[in-house]
Amino acid sequence: MGLTKQQTQALAASYPTGSTPDSPTQWYDYVAVIDCIPPNSPERPRLEICGFAVTYCEENVPESFGPRSIIYRRAADDSGPLEDWAPVAPTCWTDSVPPRSGEPAEELTEAMIVEQFHRTDFALPQAVIEPPDGATLVNLPVYFELAWPDAGFAPAEVDTTTLAGHEVRIRPTLVGATYVTGDGTSIGPTTSLGGGYPDGDITHEYTTAAEVSPYISVEYGGEVSVDGGSWSTIPSTAVIDGPSAPLQVLQSRNRLYDG
């Protein structure tokens, strides 16, 4: 079954022989390695989260934090590790595993998740403009479309990291997009991605000849999942401006010719 919550927490009071809490010349480093087949290891403890590790704790240790993990430890002192990692026991209380002797388990907080959300490498919104080739005419409808590049994390894509010993997955969402036309006006915020002629619903007509630099500004929200759990809303947003798309607005001229 593995260690209970109390037994897991008690690891913080365990020291190598000859060392004490009052005079800790040595201590144990701890890490919780998710109990899946390799490649999980003390060096990469959360590379994989398998169904077994999640369902085992859900079915056998109700209200535990999970997923089922194997606790490893190694003795260390001020000079660094003194031995290799060695397994101790399994546990479903991964949030109670201390980072080292004498220290409480680091608690994953909402503030840590919000901070990580703002570190997300968000995808820069790209403005696709029609007519193409960077030129249009005065009073001609210009169609705008929001496109996501391959680089960065776009809405519904998942960025995975480790915080306080937990696997944290952040999934950006689209709160709204503002289409900045470059002539002092804008469209939005809206959740529409626009589109090309003739069905696109984000259009603008320029009334004077000019060289403008339209772009799209996106407000990202986010959802978070911790250790494979359900998704919940992150109480914060981030505004990201995409690159400008230079556009030349030309004045059409009518000429009369003798027949």
What does this structure look like?
It contains three helices and 16 strands. With about 260 residues, it is mainly beta. The strands form four sheets. Strands 8, 9, 10, 13, 14 and 15 form a six-stranded antiparallel sheet that branches. Strands 1, 2, 3 and 4 form a four-stranded antiparallel sheet that branches. A three-stranded antiparallel sheet has the order 5-7-11, with no helix packed on it. It folds into two domains: about 5-95, no CATH class; about 110-250, Immunoglobulin-like, CATH 2.60.40.
The largest pleated sheet is described as: 6 strands, antiparallel
Order of helices and strands: HEHEEEHEEEEEEEEEEEE
Average pLDDT works out at 92
How many distinct helices? 3
Report, as a whole number of angstroms, the end-to-end distance: 97 Å
| Tally of structural domains | 2
CATH class category label of the largest domain: Mainly Beta
Summarize it:
By secondary structure, the protein is mostly beta strands.
SSE layout and pairing:
Layout: H1 5-10, E1 27-34, H2 51-60, E2 69-77, E3 80-81, E4 86-91, H3 110-118, E5 126-130, E6 135-137, E7 142-147, E8 159-163, E9 166-180, E10 186-190, E11 203-204, E12 210-212, E13 215-226, E14 232-233, E15 238-241, E16 247-250
Question: What are the main properties of this structure?
Answer:
16 strands; single chain; 259 residues; mainly beta; 4-stranded antiparallel β-sheet; Immunoglobulin-like
